[in-house]
Amino acid sequence: xxxxxxxxxxxxxxxxxxxxxxxxxxxxxxxxxxxxxxxxxxxxxxxxxxxxxxxxxxxxxxxxxxxxxxxxxxxxxxxxxxxxxxxxxxxxxxxxxxxxxxxxxxxxxxxxxxxxxxxxxxxxxxxxxxxxxxxxxxxxxxxxxxxxxxxxxxxxxxxxxxxxxxxxxxxxxxxxxxxxxxxxxxxxxxxxxxxxxxxxxxxxxxxxxxxxxxxxxxxxxxxxxxxxxxxxxxxxxxxxxxxxxxxxxxxxxxxxxxxxxxxxxxxxxxxxxxxxxxxxxxxxxxxxxxxxxxxxxxxxxxxxxxxxxxxxxxxxxxxxxxxxxxxxxxxxxx
Length: 334
Fold this sequence. Notes:
Layout (H helix, E strand, L loop, with lengths): L32 H40 L2 E2 L7 E2 L3 H8 L1 H32 L6 H14 L3 H10 L5 H8 L14 H11 L2 H12 L3 H9 L4 H12 L1 H16 L3 H7 L14 H11 L3 H29 L8
Antiparallel strand pairs: 1-2
């Protein structure tokens, strides 16, 4: 018998795997490492070119002057002669200066009294504007307008005229049988006119409060009403906790702004080497301006500026530390 022969077809040739970055036809599917690095380099250059105006402004207008003022703080510098190194003499003289201590007291009083009043007015008006009523857009614009023009010199001049002897406030006091006399010339009352001007500019924090109130769910108020909660309890237990992040932001921002008040205090107090009768409106920045630009003691003014920076930084750190006790974030409650 013959032996059967089975025909086995030859196996197909093995196909080698394509190298990374190459297609089956030999073409390049992805750019090579050198091409990728070149494209990334071009993108970085383009990004830095777009950022260059901000970088130049930061270096020339912020970082550079800050470094220069830190050096001047340890020198005797009058803007005309070369600075002369004197070490810590500016700081020791500052702490012994009674007018510097007065400026610290006036500024502290202004921050402690003016900031809460401004925020209370802003929150109160925001609560009113959060209710649905006709003409909401007009009222919001009207209440916000003072924030746009309140910091101008012209408004400060008008405010000074309003609180002067024989002006509107003086005549209103006479109608109600109060002691006649303007506030501008009275050392005990001129600072209240400065606080009143600050409170009048509550528009910016009001808008932020209003945005926060819009985010409070209405279902919470409806559930509280069904449980018999009154207006005050709903405000204290629902509104304040829900807008506490916005409240913290406004407290932080307005506190920093209060430390930096200058124009209104300088105009109300009267231009020159004083701020108000008996230094009643001698806020910190006003005395800094007097020392630096009127007395030509730029080294002393630079030392004052760095002390202000340290004070604002310390207050900011305390506020951030305290937020753990009264600020409620939605992410933390989940």
